[in-house]
Amino acid sequence: MDRTTTPIQLLPRRSGVPRQPLAAGSPAPLDRLGRAVHDLRISVTDRCNFRCTYCMPKEVFGADYAFLPRSELLTFEEIERLARTFVRLGVGKLRITGGEPLVRRDLPILVGLLAAIRTPDGEPVDLTLTTNGSALRHLARPLREAGLGRVTVSLDSLDDEVFRAMNGVDYPVAKVLDGIAAARAAGLANIKINMVVRRGVNESSIVPMARWARAEGLILRFIEYMDVGHSNGWQLDEVVPAGEVVAAIDAAMPLEPVAANYPGEVAARWRYRDGDGEVGVISSVTQPFCADCTRARLSAEGTLYTCLFAVSGHDLRGPLRDGATDDELAGLVDGIWRIRADRYSELRTAATGSLPKVEMFAMGG
Fold first, then answer.
1. Using an 8 Å Cβ cutoff, are 340 and 287 in contact?
2. Which of 264, 343, 350, 338 lies closest to 310, judged by CA?
3. Which site from 190, 207, 304, 310 is most exposed, i.e. has the minimal number of CB atoms within 10 Å?
4. Residues 308, 295: Cα–Cα separation, whole Å
5. CATH code assigned to 39-140+150-363
């Protein structure tokens, strides 16, 4: 398969669930393991201006790689309608992702549409966005004014040489820091920073990043290097376990555990013993949290994935464009969620690493 010309759709989409209208007032669905759907991650594009080594390595996704044509992307109105469907079923948190979501033209318009959504109880949803920060200087204020509540910025090191190597396009760390400053100036509160830690690459940045985030009043979350997709060359010995990350920080700035903010929160929380700030660790590899996973993922072309490590998904764009009613869409998603039994990280073995998993940027990691 020629990866420079093959479209992003790696596997045929499936539904396998009949379209049955869902009656108003029906109870929120639980999957086969008793998990509700609380978080929806919405990818608005499969494109990105970075080529991070752990997500979209430039050796695979080069200049000639064929990303989705615009006609295959969900429109903002279609995204809004599907988001309303998920909120009806119990979702209270919407996260806009990509690829890099800020490369999608007119994104503040979508933010405005999503910010207007209310839960069945009349409450606003928690609307947030994950970005590499490169366009925040120009877009932070318009996004905030449109109704964006929070932002998470991916930043894997303060060391410029390390950061440039990891992002794959020689992008300077100073510009990301400037984007974070712009987000704060725009009034985006509770900014979080995500750092993927890969042994032999950036583990020396753990403590410096923690010191910086603490001084800046930012919440830093360390993410174990994961076997998402099948193009990043993942090896288990390159994983820096969450316990090792916590120990390194604790040795420099003592930590103590903190309870989760809500059931299903992915990051295990630790606060500094002097009360000045906190960090989080996301340990999908060494301490799987599948049993509490409440996340669904909607790809840019309208495929629903019920696990980050999925090998296939369920087509929602087809029924949507074929004229499905709101009740029919809700019934379809309800049925998909009720048969969900994903727990990849609990079952991870050497063999699962070779599965043809959908790339993270394709589903909205």
1. no
2. 343
3. 190
4. 9
5. 3.20.20.70
Give strand ranges (E) for the chain. Answer: 39-43, 93-97, 126-131, 150-154, 192-197, 219-224, 255-258, 268-272, 278-282, 295-298, 303-305, 314-315
Amino acid at position 71, single letter: S
Helices 242-252 and 206-216, axial angle in degrees (round to 10): 60
pLDDT digits over 252-299, tens only?
Answer: 999 999 998 887 788 999 999 998 899 999 998 888 888 889 999 999
- What is the reported pTM? 0.90
Our separate counts of H helices and E strands in the chain read 11, 12
User: Which own/partner contact pairs does 63-66 have at CB distance under 8 Å and 24+ positions apart?
Assistant: 64/4, 64/5, 65/3, 65/4, 65/5, 66/4, 66/5, 66/6, 66/7, 66/8
Beta-bridge partner residues of 150: 128
Neighbours of 190 (CB within 10 A): 12
d(CA 230, CA 363): 13
Closest C-alpha to 216, from 251, 186, 253, 190: 190
Q: Which of 108, 187, 99 is nearest to 149 (CA)?
A: 187
Burial class (CB in 10 A: 0-12, 13-18, 19+), 220: buried
Q: What is the pLDDT of residues 95-118, one digit of tens each?
A: 999 999 999 999 999 999 999 999
Q: So where are the chain's domains?
A: 39-140+150-363
Helix (H, G, I), strand (E, B) or coil at 298: strand
